[in-house]
Write a structure and sequence with these properties.
The chain contains 15 helices and ten strands. It has 375 residues and is of the alpha/beta class. α12 runs parallel beside α13 and α13 packs parallel to α15. The chain binds (3S,4R)-3-hydroxy-2-oxopiperidin-4-yl beta-D-xylopyranoside.
Amino acid sequence: MKQRSVLFGILAVVVSACGGGGSDGTTAPTTPTTPTTPTTPTTPTTPAPTLRQLAAAKGRSFGTALDATFFGANPAAYDTLVAHEFSMATPGNVMKWSSIHRDSRFAYRWANPDALVAFAQANGMQVRGHTLFWYQQNPAWLTSTTWSADTLKQLMKEHVDSVVGHYKGKLHSWDVVNEALNDGAGTLRTTNNPWATALGSAYIDLAFTEARRVDPSVLLFYNDYSLEFPGAKQDSAYALIQGMKARGVPIDGIGFQAHFQVNADGTGVPSRTTLTSTFNRFAALGLKVEITELDIRVRTPGATSAELAAQAQGYGDVVAACLAVDACDAIVVWGVNDGESWIPGTFPGWGQALLFDDSFGKKATYNAVRAALGG
Ligand code: XIL
């Protein structure tokens, strides 16, 4: 559309330069008219491209998590902003067991996740499903009973049949397994994880196999944090996925959560080089790479201008690293504006982690992302 109107513009200039008649010398000379004072040409105001548009021009999706603001009595302006700036949406909470499968074994709560998917479809946005198996936000009916290993496998299949089945053909991807590895050494995380406790790492293979069985076309992701920089946890995730591939377990991608913080000395966000080599390492396994929960927190109140500058630089580096790796096809921020971010509640003394401020004004972080996307 845009290319076509530019093309018409060029043609119009060429046509007017060639046309006009009088080239055979037969027309009478016209009396020169008194020159009029030229008026200052007004530049047509084209709206600045949005992050969604800029990312699309680079073959990437740019997304956000949608949560309480979206489902609450939010102003229409919120929806408009989301649809303009983002081409992908993921539920911050409403597809987790504690929400969608909260009440009992055979009861599911579809209203909010269905509304999110309908909104995304109406606005041409992709949806990342989040998440099928995690050690947090599980309902009491599940965690307060000691189930046999066989029944736990059955519960996993039922959940996948119901939830993946409900959204079959409608989602871009699922975070099938979330945060399966411990901090530090990256061993299998069993605490509070009923499936890992009963089945060991076999639960991961089962989760992916079942998800593929129910929706053969949705992309299946392993999603975790602290994998962005080299270390034991990254190595462990690499070995896990390499093993899955060797066993023929269907996995399409890896999600890097990218919850970063700017330390007082300006460190904390992995460098562009570190991120690029991490993404390349996992891409070499044949995986898609997505940045799934990006936020970069600073100390609040009282972040220094140096800390804010490091934060903006960090956002730009994450985007640039994604653009440097063909396999990286999406960047998703974890919320639209600082006022709805999970950070202040979970990390007291930290905040201001997103692209828009409390009044939905664009921050330096937004401008850094825009610049990194070429805008
Ligand atoms: C967070 C939500 O944003 C909060 O509202 C909720 O209270 C806790 O979970 N890693 C994940 C996300 O995979 O699901 C988490 O989301 C943030 C950390």
